[in-house]
Amino acid sequence: MTKDLFGRHRAVLPEWLALYYEDPLEITHGEGRHVWDAAGNKYLDFFGGILTTMTAHALPEVTKAVSEQAGRIIHSSTLYLNRPMVELAERVAHVSGIPDARVFFTTSGTEANDTALLLATTYRRSNTILAMRNSYHGRSFSSVGITGNRSWSPTSLSPLQTLYVHGGVRTRGPYAHLDDRDFVAACVDDLTDLLGHTRAPAALIAEPIQGVGGFTSPPDGLYAAFREVLHERDVLWIADEVQTGWGRTGDHFWGWQAHAQSGPPDIVTFAKGIGNGMSVGGVVARAEIMNCLDANSISTFGGTQVTMAAGLANLAYLLEHDLQGNARRVGGLLLERLRAVAAQVPHVREVRGRGLMLGIELARPGTDEAAPEAAATVLEEARAGGLLIGKGGGHNTSALRVAPPMTLTVAEAEEGAAILERALRSI
């Protein structure tokens, strides 16, 4: 049955629509931190639909909210007052950390980043954008144009002029040998020099932890130091929190809070986890920025009632059950366990991340050369052992991505680490 579905998939869908595994997997249902495939095999899910099933599969509170809302009305568009949208916007504005915040809902992180770029370029009257090397911001024409990861950027054409900045990857590049303080100073010097050679940009867009890039991040405080330089020139800071938001990093509710010394971002984008699988994204910005557009705009499906009901129920569950604290505690144990395993596996170059957002970068032993074949092997072996993980990385997709639902238990973390250990040792 799966082979038949695979054949049908190939017959009607684009060749560039990637599938994991040599024998692609059809997931039919899930519960908690587990999913099942069409053959009845059970897996511990350490990727959550690319960090989207944030709390749990089939979470009763979210399922109930969606079902009840669907029984009333599913959709009406933003041309009408929408109580669930207003209520979720109020909660998001409150937790955003941005003063006088306004919220606009979209259907995805790509669309959220696209909207943020529209706002920034309109507000600043500039089409120049600063982005980080190894970054990823979505698959629309504008967001692909600022993506600093060749594997996910199929065209060099763009409506924007993009300039790439150092700092998103701590352990590679010309400053990797420096300590954290000197690393930050060198990146700031590079940014300052870059700004001396170009017209004033509209904004810097940056993921606090690069998702598709392999869960890489700079030292804490880098973007705060950048913000001081940017603020002097009225350049905006957009924090792409599509993967890092809602407490996943454990230490903070938003990834930008590791860089908060110079104040909050001007714009924050979000998506993925807030809907726990429903299609929800959005932008938070100061009122003067959000209101800068001088033409009409609506969102047909952004903020639709059923997705807003899911977001409200999911956010309430996350806050009431301190899932940020759970991500910090259980994620810390998982990180320690994986680092202990990695110390005995020559192919592991680095284990990094925070909370329940962890990356394992693989390289050919004794070198910094990427080992994509090893990453593919581990992905397959983990599946064979009953564990689903992800891949990423700007160097030939040689990083494994571990991002379970934030309700992960200690026992499940230990189970997943044991499966990963066997998979890593199989290289």
Walkthrough of the structure:
This protein is an alpha/beta fold and 427 residues long. Helices cover 37% and strands 16% of the residues. The strands form three sheets. The protein has a seven-stranded mixed β-sheet with strand order 4-10-9-8-7-5-6, sandwiched between helices. A four-stranded mixed β-sheet has the order 1-2-3-13. Strands 11-12-15-14 form a four-stranded antiparallel β-sheet, covered by helices on one side. A hairpin with a 2-residue loop joins strand 11 and strand 12 (357-362). Helix 4 packs across helix 10, helix 7 packs parallel to helix 8 (222-232) and helix 11 packs parallel to helix 13.
Distinctive features:
427 residues, 13 helices
State the end-to-end distance: 30 Å
Number of strands: 15
State the assembly state of the protein chains: single chain
Main sheet characteristics: 7 strands, mixed
Order of helices and strands: HEEEHHHEHEHEHEHEEEHHHEEHEEEH
How would you sum up the global shape? globular
